[in-house]
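Worked problem 6 (solution included).
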Amino acid sequence: MEQRLSLVTLGVRNLPKARAFYESLGWRASSASCDHVCFFQTGCMAVALYPTEALLGDSGKAGAVPVPGGITLGLNVPLRDDVDRELAAVLTHGATLLHPAIDTPWGGRTAYFSDPDGHPWEITWAPMFPLGAAGELLLP
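Solution. The predicted structure is:
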């Protein structure tokens, strides 16, 4: 299997509300979006919003209780001060603060929030991991 991630699909309770949240952050929905799913191009990959029950059914887990956690989505930013700026912006659009911005023992800065469906996000400045022209994380 190729070492690549192309798409992250988030199960959401209310697709119009979830879409409105991400669009309020400045994300632009793809023309491939419709009433049943919403796609956002995010650099070299994409994020999809899809109703939780449909996602469970498609994955063979119909009727299962969705369990949040076990994954954190990440946004790496190019400058230390961008962590605080991005966190302030998402909080004004309805995100929930999980952990305020702090300087880390490894020399970076990080903060956590969740979207309206409880998906945890980390905003990080990691000076040892530069970002490419499309915002992609460049690992050494």
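Discussion: The longest helix spans residues 80-92.
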